[in-house]
Amino acid sequence: MEKEKKNSGMFAVFAALGANVLVAISKFIGFGLSGSAAMLNESIHSVVDCGNQILLLFGDRQAKQASSNLHQFGEARAKYFFSMIVATFLFFGGGVIGVMEAFEKLIHPEHSVENPWIVIVILLVGMLIEGSSLRIAFKEIAELNTDKLPIFKFLHESRHSEILVIFAEDLCAIIGLLLALLGTVLTMFTSNPLFDAISGLLIGFLLMAAAIFLTREFYSLIVGERVTDSDLSKILSAFERPEIKQVINIRTTHLGPTEILIAAKIDIISSEEAHGYGIINSIEEKIRQKLPDKKCYIYVEIDEFDEHYNR
Predict the structure, then answer these.
(1) 172: which residues sit within 8 A by CB, 6+ positions away?
(2) Quick one: 136 and 73 in the same domain?
(3) What sign has the CA pseudo-torsion 232, 238, 242, 247?
(4) Are residues 246 and 170 in the same domain?
(5) Which residue in 123, 155, 119, 157 sits closest to 137, CA to CA?
(6) One matching Pfam family, short form (predicted)?
(7) Which domain holds residue 188?
(8) What phi-psi label fits residue 45: left (phi over 0), alpha (psi between -120 and 50 degrees) or beta?
(9) Which strands form 259-268's sheet, in the order they lie side by side?
(10) Confidence at residue 7, expressed as pLDDT on a 0 to 100 scale
(11) Sequence-separated (6 or more) residues with CB below 8 Å from residue 289
């Protein structure tokens, strides 16, 4: 249970929620004092991020629902559904609102940025808070990345949707703060509010790009992805037994981040057919030993290999 909690990836969600509440409050204060388009966009960004974490926490609770007659494998994929909502409605919606606000400032560049030094201080504080949240996300990734994959390869292959959302969110937050800082500084030294509007526009586009990337990833998870190459190798190794003549086929799918369905059909040698049930039980036990961090639903069928059989 302790290991499952450690590897759940949800600690980063709590850390990000606390960070974003503080950052959102400071940004709205900064916007009220400055009228900065970039600061308004950043304020919207932080509110969106708080909504993200609340939905992810709700999705995590739903994913822990016990199996029922209707959902016989439980509701672990609820995480993917709520992650998709975060990506489409909150990330993309927040990006669209931000772009609209910034575009309004862009076509009416007479707006001014008041108290720029207050804005700069708030942005720098925001960077420190978001940087701490991103550091926690990196720590969670390091714990989940047991195969030591390059970080972007791990994020692409990971079935933990919540850690992908938090990493994308924290990374966008840091980049967005840098853009807002750059726009504010340029506006302050040139007295041209156009730079502030442009930085707000870029922040909005950044959120929309993140939404498109995340939506593609979560669509694949909702449809159903097989296990990772590393886990598949471990599963296949459990079938490497002298009693097995051939593995006819094997299919896997993730029912959730840590729950997988494994269905296999094997051909065993004639002299061992009487011990088929024992062989299957041994295979299942070995798979569970090799994947201690996963809840495995395993179904193995004994059949005779036929190369002309339509599978």
Answers:
(1) 45, 206, 207, 210
(2) yes
(3) negative
(4) no
(5) 155
(6) Cation_efflux
(7) 2-223
(8) alpha
(9) 244-256, 259-268, 295-302
(10) 45
(11) none
- pTM of the full predicted structure? 0.75
Query: Structurally, how many domains does the chain consist of?
Result: 2
Residue 235: name the closest of 299, 278, 291 by CA. Answer: 291
Angle at 168 between CA 164 and CA 174, to 5 degrees: 150
CA distances from 253 to 123, 176, 220, 257 (A): 43, 36, 11, 10
228-275 residue pLDDT tens = 988 999 999 999 999 999 999 999 999 988 899 999 999 999 888 888
The whole-angstrom separation of Cα 15 and Cα 105 is: 33
Tokens at 169, concatenated: 């969110």
Beta strand segments in the chain, E: 244-256, 259-268, 295-302
Write the CB contacts of 79 (distance below 8 Å, at least 6 apart in sequence): 56, 59, 60, 62, 63, 161, 162, 256, 257
**pLDDT tens digit sequence for 144-172:** 888 888 888 888 888 888 888 888 888 88
